[in-house]
């Protein structure tokens, strides 16, 4: 019988688990409802309701966007708070995570949609200066391995702001500093790197991102992601033109071919922030969720698991393109461990679930009175889903 027979589950494969009864809980956040650690805690409580002796290990995950630092902190990293600025220049306190000489920073903490004052978008004027301030603090603290998660940006400034935060200057033809945001890059004429943070040369910088868009054109940063940040068609065109000017300035400053810089896969990540990090900071790009799984010790935890439970707010076709649950499922499947997903809403059909490696998927909307109820009562419903999963996937190790 399928593990998802009956209400609350959707078929994806056969139930069961390999020897070893530990359930590894590796969910992402349920956006607008619960962070990843709270999701894992609710699922753990439900598993304990159904099987009090079942060993459970919590390993919250993320995909490089908002919640990435929280996942590292849940894995035991040390929080560090730095005074910085938000996407429109308002002061804020940004938290990053440290483990030895490695630092994990998320762009969303300083330049993301979630930290826009009043939630009001500023697609032409939002900048990444705050990210540069945090990166400078990371280098000042002696970190030599720097990982930057690029998801959730509110900006389309080509990373010019983050370079300013690291000590560079973006100048117009008269030698004056250009302003914040992508539109200001239409006046950019020269990038002065003389004041760039000296410790950057001795650091390894990695970018955690799953976006492969180039910088410019119909698949570029402005065209694809600008509308999500509040840009209309006219502003998208203006931002694209400003970024085209900016990449020429970057090419002059670094000696790189502007066309190669602009066309590189991932150059358009986070409104072009990925371009600045690779072209000037020497960063290398790696898949977001894969990087997070590596840094948070997921693979070590997986080696002792008999079942993995992952999830996010909505399990849909976007999940299959670099989102955390898909990355968790791929890693678990490679290790021969079955995976169950839980989401606020599930729109993937059984075939897509099976192909992605999910044995079953449980939707909170199947347990709630309506979609709003699934958000408001997410913790309670996740607890019920956890109990159902423990019942459907009993431990293969006898309890005493």
UniProtKB/TrEMBL annotation:
Signal peptide: none annotated. Residues 1-20 have a biased composition (Gly residues). It comes from the Bacteria. Keywords: Kinase, Transferase. Gene3D superfamilies: Glycerate kinase, domain 1, Glycerate kinase, domain 2. Residues 1-22 are annotated as: Disordered. The keyword ATP-binding does not apply. It is an enzyme of class 2 (transferase). GO terms for molecular function: glycerate kinase activity. InterPro entries: Glyc_kinase_flavodox-like_fold, Glycerate_kinase, Glycerate_kinase_RE-like, Glycerate_kinase_sf. Pfam families: Gly_kinase. Its EC number is 2.7.1.31. Belongs to the glycerate kinase type-1 family. This is Glycerate kinase. It comes from Pseudonocardia spirodelae.
């Amino acid at each position: 019988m399928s593990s998802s027979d009956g209400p609350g589950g959707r078929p994806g494969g056969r139930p069961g688990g390999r020897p070893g009864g530990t359930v590894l809980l590796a969910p992402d956040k349920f956006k607008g409802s619960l962070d990843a650690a709270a999701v894992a805690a609710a699922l753990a409580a439900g598993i304990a309701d159904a099987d009090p002796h079942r060993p459970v290990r919590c390993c919250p995950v993320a995909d490089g966007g908002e919640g990435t630092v929280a996942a590292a902190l849940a894995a035991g990293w040390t929080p560090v708070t730095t005074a910085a600025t938000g996407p429109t220049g308002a002061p804020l306190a940004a938290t990053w995570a440290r483990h030895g000489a490695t630092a994990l920073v998320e762009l969303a903490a300083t330049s993301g949609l979630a930290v826009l004052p009043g939630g009001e978008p500023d697609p032409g004027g939002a900048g990444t200066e705050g990210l540069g301030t945090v990166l400078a603090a990371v280098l000042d603290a002696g970190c030599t391995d720097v990982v930057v998660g690029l998801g959730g940006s509110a900006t389309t400034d080509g990373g010019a702001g983050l370079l300013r935060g690291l000590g560079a200057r973006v100048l117009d033809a008269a030698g004056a500093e250009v302003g914040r945001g992508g539109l200001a890059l239409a006046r950019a004429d020269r990038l002065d790197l003389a004041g760039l943070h000296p410790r950057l040369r001795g650091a390894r910088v990695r970018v955690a991102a799953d976006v492969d868009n180039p910088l410019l054109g119909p698949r570029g940063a402005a065209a694809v992601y600008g509308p999500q940040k509040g840009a209309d068609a006219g502003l998208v065109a203006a931002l694209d033109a400003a970024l085209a000017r900016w990449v020429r300035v970057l090419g002059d400053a670094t000696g790189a071919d502007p066309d190669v810089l602009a066309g590189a896969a991932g150059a358009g990540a986070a409104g072009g922030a990925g371009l600045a990090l690779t072209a000037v900071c020497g960063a290398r790009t790696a898949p977001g969720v894969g990087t997070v799984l590596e840094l948070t010790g997921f693979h070590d935890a997986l080696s002792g698991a008999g079942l993995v439970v992952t999830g996010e707010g909505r399990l849909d076709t976007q999940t299959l393109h670099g989102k955390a649950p898909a990355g968790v499922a791929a890693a678990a499947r490679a290790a021969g461990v079955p995976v169950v997903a839980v989401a606020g809403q599930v729109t993937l059909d059984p075939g897509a679930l099976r192909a992605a490696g999910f044995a079953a998927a449980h939707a909170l909307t199947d347990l709630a009175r309506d979609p709003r109820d699934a958000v408001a009562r997410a913790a309670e419903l996740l607890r019920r889903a956890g109990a159902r999963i423990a019942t459907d996937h009993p431990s293969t190790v006898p309890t005493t």
